[in-house]
Automatic annotation (TrEMBL):
Lineage: Bacteria, Bacillati, Actinomycetota, Actinomycetes, Kitasatosporales
Source species: Streptomyces subrutilus
Any Pfam family hit: NMT1_3
UniProt protein name: TAXI family TRAP transporter solute-binding subunit
Amino acid sequence: MGAGLGAVGVALAGCSGGSGPVRRLRLATGPEGGPYNAFGKALAQAVAASVSRLEIVPVSTSASVNNLRKLDDGSVELALAMADAAEDAVLGRESFTRPAAVTALARVYVNYTHLLVPADGPVRSVRDLAGRPVAAGATGSGVQVVAGRVLRSAGLSDGPAATREQQLGLAASAAALREGAVDAVFWSGGVPTPALSDLARELPLRFLPLDDHVGALRQSHGPVYTAVTLPAGVYGLAEPVGTIGVGNYLLARDDVPQGATRELLRVVFERWSDLLREVTAGARLEPRFAISTGQVPLHPGAVTYYRSVYG
C-alpha cells in the first residue's frame, strides 16, 4: 500500500501542463450501490473518455464525514460530501475537532432528505418516532448528520422520548424496515433513489414531511438547509411531500494542482448530464449553482476555471 500511495505522489508531483505522466487523483465516494459511488464511477469513466491527462480512482467509503476525514489526512485528493458535513469540517465543529484542509470545486446536486415508514404503521409524524427504533444512516455518513439534527430539533435525541438510533447504511436500512426491525428510515440522496423505489414496490411506504424543521436547522446551522419537495409520482406518492434539501459538493485538497482541478471541472461541465443520470432525475449543473459553496472556499483552480469560462 505504501508503494502504491508513493506512486500517486510521484504522478502528482511530476506532471505539469498537458503532457507528461497521467495525474491520478483518488476520489472518496460512498458505499457500493449508493449515489456517491455511482457519481464517482461515472466521473472516472468520463475523465477516461476525454483527452485529459487525469485518471480518477474512485474509493468506496461510508460517505460524507468519512470522506472529509480522508481528504484532510491526505489519503485521497478528491471527495464528495454533503454541504452540512463539509461546513462542519471547514469550521472544525461537531464531528471535527479542528478545521480541515478542504476546498470546493463545485456544488453538483441537491440531496433530498427522506424519512420513510410503512404506510400501514402507526407513525404519521416525526413526533410519533418517540422511543422507536430508527435507521439513522451509516456511521461516518452525511445521513447520520442530518438525521441527528432533525431528531434533536424534534426533541427526540435524549430523555424518555429519545429514538433508538441504529447506524445502518441504505441497503441494511431498507432490509430492516422490510423485516420490521426498525420503524423508520432516514435517507439523504437524489430523487428517486433506486433502492427506495425497489422497496416501495415491495412495501407500501409513507414519507413523512420534514419541511417544518428547515427553519430551526437554518437557525442552528446556517443556510446549507433548504426547503424542497419530493414530487408526486416518485415512490408511488399521490401528493408532493415537503422535506429538507442539502447540497452535495465535489471537494479537493487545497494542494491539488490548479491545472488538475481546471481540467477536472472542464470534464464535469461537459459531461454533467451523464454524471447525474444515475444519481438524481432532472437535475442540471449550472455555474451559478455550482459556485454556491457557502463557508467552504473554492479551490484556487476552480476560481480560475469559473472566471475563464464564465467571466
